Amino acid sequence: MEKKERDDDRTALIFLGTGCSAAVPHFRCLLQPSDPPCHVCSQSLTLLPHLNPNYRCNTSLLIDYCCEEEDGRHYYMIIDVGKSFREQVVRWFTFYKIPRIDSIILTHEHADAIHGLDDIRSLQPRGSAIDTNPLPVFLSQFTMESISTRFPYLVEKKVKEVPRRVSQLDWRIIEENCDKPFTSSGLSFTPLPVMHGEDYVALGFLFGNKSKVAYISDVSRIPPSTEYAISKAGAGQLDLLILDTNVPSMRGRQPTHLCLPETLEIIKRLCPKRALLTGMTHYFDHHEYNEILAEWSLRTSGTGSCNRRIGKGRRGLHYRPLDLADCREARGGLGEEEESGGKSGSGGSGGRGGMEPSPAVKRDGDRAEALLEGNQGFAMHCSLTTRSFKGLRRPRFGNNDEALAIAETMHGLRHLQLFGNKLSNTGLSAILDNCPNLEHLDLRQCFNVNLVGDLEKRCSERIKVVRHPNDSTHDYPFDATVIDMDSDEEDKLNCYDFDNYDYDMYIDI
Ligand SMILES: [Zn+2]
Ligand SMILES: [Zn+2]
């Protein structure tokens, strides 16, 4: 697999797993297939995991925290180490060049959150089992007691006659209380107690000083006190909400998890700038549900206060709200945080007026990043690409929706990759008109763009690096196959995934 370059000055959130406890594919769908077979699970028989967005490990998030106070030193925190932890390390730690873990935070004590604890020893230096630096693990008292029973060898510090190598862990109890934050590897976390079934409390976490991120992976109901803690009135508007969604409909709903309609209701109530969904079973097809969520976002934004239109009132001209926060709004949030010391009460002020919620189901290995450049606010990198996009030599369909949306909402954009996009010169002109800070523009395989004359001149004069539509794709990390439409094979159209994009987002935590 091709490795990405690591950026040294950015904080990143890496989705190590976005699946349910049984993970996806489900064993039974492979061993005793139904008729017709399960479409989502069957893909694992034909696609390699890193090319298959429907391949999902246990839910887990890695926070690659770049600490400004320590000259950009990186800390690596992981939320939950479940049954598929080893596989996640092999796949994504190597891919993103994560060298170690500095601390672990546990949401609860179910197998899909803790059964990887044993494998932590493989990340720790060898030596006498007793003198290895123990790794901090933040967990509730209830989770601690359960682990003590199930993994006594990880908890008891008995000196054995014949020493055996086990994970060296430093257990740190946190309270299930929104008012009792704790600090892990230099970053403050607020515990968010939620119901995971009505007889069980699991924890989510709120973190980020400049942008607020709430991560709630195992939840059936959010109690009012917790909802207040992450609401506009409590913590201010969330920049990013990462939320559980287990099955697509109320039918077949598990009493221990949210289903999609419940998840969307919560997103509507909390109105984060962006929402990403995780914890999915095999009932979710990644592409299909991202389309459904894009439509939902459009409908929701059409009824909300942050309605955005192009044109005059024609319903059909609403554009799809993007998953990215506007730079100016992000700067507003930064200022508020600095002035108020990161505390509450600023939700109503203008800078955080906000984007409409625009949820997407995430795939394993996806990354959201942060970058802050001096005092100039956020440098946002917008990447509209798909992992499996195939460019068209002679595209039949032009579409400037995304380009116009970018032009209207992202005036502070510096880096923009529109690989294989269907925009035309009209869309590109709008971006040049409205994004004066653009420094890097990648238009490879955007074959509707004809970069000549005045447009070419504007690009080359204004933008430091321009990648042209026909430029080499050798350094593009995903499938960049170009299919020549002269071959007139209609069925090839079926393999194009015109409207499915993955986004990289840069927010500063
Ligand atoms: Zn299945
Ligand atoms: Zn659970």
What does this structure look like?
There is one protein chain. This protein has 509 residues and is α/β, with parallel strands linked by helices. The protein has 13 helices and 21 strands. It has 2 domains: 11-303, Metallo-beta-lactamase, Chain A (4-Layer Sandwich), CATH 3.60.15.10; 379-506, no CATH class. It has helices at 27-31, 39-42, 85-95, 111-114, 141-150, 152-155, 224-229, 260-270, 286-303, 327-340, 401-409, 425-434, 453-462, and strands spanning 11-17, 60-67, 73-79, 103-105, 135-139, 169-173, 182-184, 187-195, 201-207, 213-216, 240-244, 274-278, 360-361, 367-370, 381-385, 391-392, 415-417, 440-442, 465-467, 482-483, 502-506. The strands form 3 sheets. It has a 12-stranded mixed β-sheet. Strands 7-8-9-10-11-12-13 form a 7-stranded mixed β-sheet. A two-stranded parallel sheet has the order 16-20. Helix 11 (401-409) packs parallel to helix 12 (425-434). The longest helix has 18 residues, at 286-303. Bound molecules: zinc ion (2 copies). This is Metallo-beta-lactamase domain-containing protein. Pfam families: Lactamase_B_2 (PF12706). Residues 78-279 form the Metallo-beta-lactamase domain.
